[in-house]
Structure formats: C-alpha cells, structure tokens
Write a structure and sequence with these properties.
Chain lengths: 103, 103
Amino acid sequence: MKAAKRKRLEAAGWHVGTSADFLELSDAEQSYIDMKLALGDALKATRATRRLSQTDVAALVASSQSRVAKMEAADASVSLDLLVRTLLTLGVPRRRVARMLGG
Amino acid sequence: MKAAKRKRLEAAGWHVGTSADFLELSDAEQSYIDMKLALGDALKATRATRRLSQTDVAALVASSQSRVAKMEAADASVSLDLLVRTLLTLGVPRRRVARMLGG
DNA sequence: GATCACTATGTCTTTTTTGACATATGGTGG
DNA sequence: CCACCATATGTCAAAAAAGACATAGTGATC
C-alpha cells in the first residue's frame, strides 16, 4: 500500500495493517480527509518557516503540544474547525487557507 | 447597525440589541465567522437550485431539519466541519467548497 | 551513551457539537 | 379561517472534539 493511502486511512481513524484495506470511502469522505491532510501539512510547513516548535504554536493558539501534533498528522480527533482556526490565528490569510483546501 | 454586521455577531453567539455592539472580534475570529456565513449561504443557494427542502437535505446528509436551518443561518452551534461535510455530501466538489471559503 | 529538545501517541475529564424533538412563525391554496 | 408545507428557534441527551497530562520515541550534540 502506498504511504499516501495509508495516511488517509489512518486519518479516517482506521488502523491499517490489522484488517481494513478493502474499506471504501465515499468521495465526500475522501475529500473531507484530503482537506484535513492538506491543512495539517500546511500547518507543519507554516510552523517550519517560522521556526516554531509545536509547543510554541500551542501557546499561540491556546492549546497543547499534543493537539498540535495531532493537527499536523490530521488525526481523526481533530476537526477542520480546529485546523482552520489555528491557521487563521497564526495569521495565515483566509484566502490562503481557502486555497490550501482546494487541493 | 448594518444587517451584515448583525448577522456576523449573531453567528458568533451574541445577541445584538441587548448589550454588545462595542464587542471586538479578532481578525481570525472574523474570518472564521465569515467562512461559516459563506458556506451557509452556499448551502442555501445549492439547495435552492436543486429545489430541495431543508427536510430533504437533512435526509440526504443524515441530520435534522433544524440543523439544516441552523447551518444556513451559520448559527454559532454549527461547525465548519458540518457545513463542509454537508456540502461535500451534496456533491459539491472540494474545489468549489474551497473557493466559497476564499471570500 | 547520556542529556536535551522536539515530536508522537494514549488516555483522561470537560466542553462543544450533534441530532432529535417540540414548537413557533410565515407563507399558500382551498 | 383552516390545513398544509417550509423554515426558524429553543432545549436536551448523547456523541464528538477539546485541552491536559503522562509517557514513549527520535535525533542531535556533547
């Protein structure tokens, strides 16, 4: 299995390697997950260019290091909401956030 | 107060007319609310072109009529998540959802 | 190989969001 | 006026997501 697909499934809350590969995601689910992955990557990139640690970001957005880690991993427990609000709080303009979501 | 601003504040969970007009929202909060409003409007528009009732949409996305009404109104109790997932489920392409968010 | 900074993951408790329901409001045709 | 349909609004129990914390993994650098 390709790493990209594995990542997607795991983001959807599935643990690949144990049982589920046949699992089919609807287009809507797929897009939703892709959006989260895109924002997670964007967050990681943004953080990198600013040379901030996850702990730094957590402080800036009033959250915790673990949650930032989960955001970047597009963990199933993080919402689009949290990702979007985090990026906006970091000063990423709305327009740019929107473009990230576009694919 | 202009209707647009009123709508924004109410979406943020504030009941205008009673006390709070001086209330200041950060850029991030403002953008976040604007995004929800944009998606709410988009949902209403999408639904209109397809000539569906809120009840119809509720059935399609496995929710309730009241929640659809709140989505369209960008009620403070609806998340970006729900709006995005609803639009995607209705078949609106990811790219288009993203453009809606851009402003 | 020990220490240190950073990141990942698991598990709690609390808070927020959700769907459901009831009910109110608004419009339309009989 | 009265049914009838669509939409709006309030409340609530249940579900999901949140922040917090502990802890484990990963690399440097010394």
